[in-house]
Amino acid sequence: MQVHHHALLSPAPGTQRELISLHYGRPGQGPKVYIQASLHADELPGMLVAHHLRNKLDALEAAGRIAGEIVLVPMANPIGLSQYILHGHQGRFETTSGENFNRHYPEQMLAAAAAAEGELGADAARNVAVLRRALKAAVEQSPVETELQSLRRTLMSLSCDADIVLDLHCDAQAVMHLYTDTLCWPDCEPLARYLGARVTLLAQDSGDNPFDEACSQVWWQWDRHFGGRFAIPQACLSVTVELRGGADVEHALAEADAQKLLDFLCYRGAVAGEVPALPAPVGDARPLAGSMPIKSATAGVLAFVRQPGDMVAAGEVVAHVIDPISNALTELSAPVDGLLYARESVRFVTAGMKVARIAGTEPLRSGKLLSA
């Protein structure tokens, strides 16, 4: 294993952060896998999974079983990791700009297309290699003006030429669930089985260029840009893995999740050995546009009456909001039939706050589909 240090743009004299990446296997000897943890720096289950992954990858490398190249970034956001306000960790948004750390990744599809077009043809494998090389060069040459932009560029440079990209996150309180590009679902379905995901939420463009889509959507964008003149497959499976809720930081869960990720990498040929049996699915894929929020019209104490993982019917009460002054109780109901897959962990809500999400089967929303 090799340890690489990536210096970020210094935000002030005497101050500089760095990103650390761990590299297993040999580039070009098989599929490239990129795994990062805690891009939202206060979402910690991924960091513990990365700890167990590192131990397992060390053993696999010692046994000569790394059949491709595996890059692990055990802590993907040194900026957010350092942001505390009154002892509260603020890891989702950069406090300088207010921007979400998982939005606005550099878009270099057109620059890479222009650089690669003269070398493209009917050979899909060669086209993939040419486009990956052009994309990596375009990302690395893109200018940055802030520390946050330099973090985004570094993460994209490490991941943009990978066959598989796994971005480890978590929700507030949730079941295991995934996000991926609609065109990636056939390749993602085995991962959902190995992880026991209750639902995989699909979108071709959810808005604001989050990290996973920045890695995967360039492939269908290139195919559309060139009008089908060249053989361009969907060459990157990029998935946001939501490792349940923020408090699910336990060794038993993390060790099991790490092993399931490696089972999938064995299935995909990045790890040598007998391929573990593909488990039966415990969930399905649904449109991200069918994920419907439950909002509270009033402020008060929030008391849930249904749990993450419950199937609910439209109109069914999911939570109560209680005004401590008037003693009024407001019922919050499911807007659609579906899976209650995530809910808030706070228990006092303000008017208009989204407190839970239901994964329905019909696409009912449009525009930007992700939360802030």
Range of helix content: 25-40%
Q: Walk across the major sheet and give the strand order.
A: 1-2-4-3-7-11-9-10-12
- How far apart the termini lie comes to 36 Å
- The structural class is alpha+beta
The CATH architecture assignment of the largest domain turns out to be 3-Layer(aba) Sandwich
**Which class of the largest domain in CATH terms?**
Alpha Beta
What would your notes on this structure say?
By secondary structure, the chain is α+β, with helices and mostly antiparallel strands. The chain has 2 domains: 2-282, Zn peptidases (Aminopeptidase, 3-Layer(aba) Sandwich), CATH 3.40.630.10; 288-359, OB fold (Dihydrolipoamide Acetyltransferase, E2P) (Beta Barrel), CATH 2.40.50.100. Helix content is 28%, strand content 26%. It is built from 8 helices and 20 strands. The chain has helices spanning 45-62, 78-81, 109-116, 124-141, 147-159, 185-195, 211-225, 251-267; strands at 2-7, 18-25, 32-37, 69-73, 84-85, 88-89, 164-171, 173-174, 177-180, 199-202, 237-245, 284-287, 291-295, 300-304, 311-312, 317-322, 329-333, 338-343, 348-349, 354-359. A 9-stranded mixed sheet has the order 1-2-4-3-7-11-9-10-12, with helices on both faces. Helix 1 (45-62) links the parallel strand 3 and strand 4. The two termini are 36 Å apart.
